[in-house]
Structure to design on (168 residues):
């Protein structure tokens, strides 16, 4: 049963994550934000399967709650109409995809050569004491936290840029 739930939550996470970016149902940014909430809830289900109940609760409370309220507030504050959305130029899209691919390759190459996580033991239990000791006593999780903070910053800037009107 645990394997079935893992594959179900993993498939839901990937599907909803794809629908955040390429939403065929609606061009409304609120729909993409709702798919992001579903992605976050599916990831919380994966944390529950790992017996990390505290992380699952924090995932739902912080990200699905506070961060998504912030994103929805920004989207609603911009008050976009569908016909006012910006058109994308082919040159900018190709250049953006090339730069994202280059940065992704650089990140993967750097992480592969750095040896981060080489000596980690997978024996952490999902309680708060061991989680706090792992996060704050040794510096082995500093890089993943910095990467997550950078991803949140990029997501916030992306929400604003994707929802922006054309300035003509």
């Amino acid at each position: 049963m645990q394997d079935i739930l893992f594959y179900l939550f993993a498939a839901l996470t990937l599907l909803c994550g794809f629908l955040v970016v390429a939403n065929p149902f609606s061009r409304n940014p609120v729909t993409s934000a709702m798919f992001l909430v579903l992605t976050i809830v599916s990831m919380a289900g994966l944390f529950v399967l790992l017996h990390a109940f505290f992380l699952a609760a924090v995932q739902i409370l912080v990200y699905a709650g506070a961060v998504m309220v912030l994103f929805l507030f920004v989207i609603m504050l911009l008050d976009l109409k569908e016909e006012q959305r910006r058109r994308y130029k082919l040159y900018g899209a190709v250049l953006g995809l090339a730069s994202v691919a280059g940065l992704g390759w650089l990140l993967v190459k750097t992480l592969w050569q750095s040896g981060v996580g080489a000596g980690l033991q997978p024996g952490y239990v999902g309680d708060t004491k061991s989680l706090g000791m792992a996060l704050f006593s040794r510096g082995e999780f500093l890089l993943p936290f910095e990467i997550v903070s950078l991803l949140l910053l990029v997501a916030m800037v992306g929400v604003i840029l994707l929802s922006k009107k054309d300035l003509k």
